[in-house]
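Deliverable D2.4 — example input (structure tokens):
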């Protein structure tokens, strides 16, 4: 799922600013690992590396940005596959998933 417009990205950034850095403070990393393997790894890779350009990575932005994106998808906005996946998770599962995503090693941006 690629972000297709500047307006969409601005919305994600705005939402990310509304969530404090500890957004996934209560998440369970091990539960998140299981959820990630079941819902995310096929497209986004085992360590969030993605498969550009079709499936974006989950390491190039702060975890808060991914939190905002997931919550935006849960509200029905964005790519239908991501909306369906996000709506299948409750808030606790979202926090668990984000706790696991936060463990991914960051990489230098591609040149």
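Example output (designed residues):
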């Amino acid at each position: 799922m690629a972000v297709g417009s500047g307006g969409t990205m601005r919305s994600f950034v705005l939402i990310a600013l509304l969530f404090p850095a500890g957004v996934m403070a209560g998440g369970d990393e091990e539960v998140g690992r299981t959820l990630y393997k079941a819902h995310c790894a096929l497209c986004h890779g085992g360590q969030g590396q993605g498969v550009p350009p079709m499936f974006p990575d989950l390491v190039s932005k702060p975890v808060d940005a991914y939190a905002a994106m997931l919550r935006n998808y849960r509200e029905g906005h964005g790519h239908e596959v991501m909306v369906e996946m996000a709506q299948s998770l409750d808030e606790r599962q979202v926090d668990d998933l984000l706790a696991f995503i936060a463990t991914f090693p960051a990489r230098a941006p591609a040149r």
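The CA atoms of residues 63 and 102 lie 6 Å apart.
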